[in-house]
Amino acid sequence: MTEIADHIVSVGVGALSIADVVAVARYGAQVEIDSAAIEEMAATRARVEELANDPTPVYGISTGFGALARRHIPEDMRAKLQVSLIRSHAAGTGPEVEEEVVRALMLLRLSTLCTGRTGVRPVVAETYAAVLNAGITPVVREYGSLGCSGDLAPLAHCALALIGEGECRVDGGPIMASADALADAGITPLVLQEKEGLALINGTDGMLGMLCLAITDLRQAAKVADIAAAMTVEGLTGTLSVFDDDLQQLRPHPGQAASAANIRTVAADSAILAAAAEEFREKQVQDAYSVRCAPQVAGGFRDTLTHAEQVAVRELAAAVDNPVVALDGRVTSNGNFHGAPVAYVLDFLAIVVADLASISERRTDRFLDTARNRGLNAFLADDPGVDSGHMIAQYSQAGIVHELKRNATPASADSIPSSAMQEDHVSMGWAAARKLRRSVDGLQRVLAVEVLTAARALDMREGAPAPGTAAAVGALRQRVSGPGPDRFLAPEIEHTVELVKSGTLVTAVENAVGALQ
């Protein structure tokens, strides 16, 4: 990933891509602000300063916030107002949020600042970029955001670091004072002026950042699911005929067609399936739903992911703040900070993640039961009774799937009023994003166990596997031994999880059969 880390992401009036977010958040790519953004920020800042001198109260510039918006703040107290806002809103609690999530939300807040619609001075964005490039990651806590008005508490913790307060880590090091980290990097702490504190915290950046990261991981997981399904069809001596393209076209969902094509490609030219074909026609007739309907479930997952990506792309093009400097120069309140559009797809993804994991677990379970595994040892054990084989690996899958089903309960269906009923309907998008992150990890682990189990079954069959499935087994066998007496199983599962998460498994298969859809 060195080439990604060396990539420079330009931040300006145009939209970032999902790949840009991942490059900066996960791989430490540097950012630069384009000159057009500097000019736009300077122009709209002039409008904010004009209104700051106007005796008529303007929300966010010369008033309090939320339920306190009716109080007019005198000019000599406005700098204190902005600092007080950041300090009071940095109220997160609980475990520390992952570095890649914090970096993602920082980049996305920087992107909104660079649109010029927030009315901050260019130095605010320049300081933000410098902090990102120096590897300074503010400490953000798990709880504190309701997803409306944006991710207030997480963003406030980041803003606190910009003014030289609070805590941070540098390049994953120990927690230290932000003032010291800025000093070590030669960055001058910000001195906030009118509107700037509010502009630093009023956005959907945390939930959007987690959505971008999840989309990236789930695109990879979609391919892994198809590889795993292909390995299972072959390991259970099933049939590929149900995945024929003309059958998929009878129900023209694009995700279904792509998934079926991948399964056909990965399992093509299998000597194991060829040898078992006649017996299948005479005795088996049909595979179970978890095998036969793999493209329908994985395809629905893919199509949901495409919808989520469309929402993410729209949100990446947004300037989320309140108030905003509109294109005609007026500074006006709005509701664009409400996280509902993002929260809905975060919850939707949690639902399809749970179902994709569920069908994977059901396929794994078929390998372990002699009534259904078509001639393999019970639990794929070397000596059943003495050995337990993969019995408890399936337990681990089942435990994860249970949690994923609980995570599928939508956060966005709930709302708890806040700010003395001024903010009386909130999105809970941050909570939706946090549980989706756990679900993504769970899905990757469930798929890894299916791959590990299917590979063991393939090694126990007579005949050569397909080139695609053989490549998957080969990648696994570099770290995990083949069938034999019971061994310490947890490390083997973790090695397989790493193959799934790193993309190594998909790369090995694609090197053998070509790019998958």
Architecture overview:
- This protein has 517 residues and is mainly α.
- It folds into two domains: 2-203, Fumarase C, Chain B, domain 1; 210-513, Fumarase/aspartase (Central domain) (Fumarase C, Chain A, domain 2), CATH 1.20.200.10.
- The protein has helices at residues 2-5, 18-27, 35-52, 78-89, 99-114, 122-133, 152-162, 178-185, 196-201, 205-235, 245-249, 254-267, 271-284, 289-292, 294-316, 340-368, 391-407, 429-460, 467-477, 489-502, 504-513, and strands at 8-11, 30-33, 93-96, 136-138, 141-143, 167-170, 176-177, 324-325, 331-332.
- It has a three-stranded antiparallel sheet. It has a two-stranded parallel sheet with strand order 1-2. A two-stranded antiparallel sheet has the order 3-5.
- The longest helix has 32 residues, at 429-460.
- The protein is elongated and about 90 Å long.
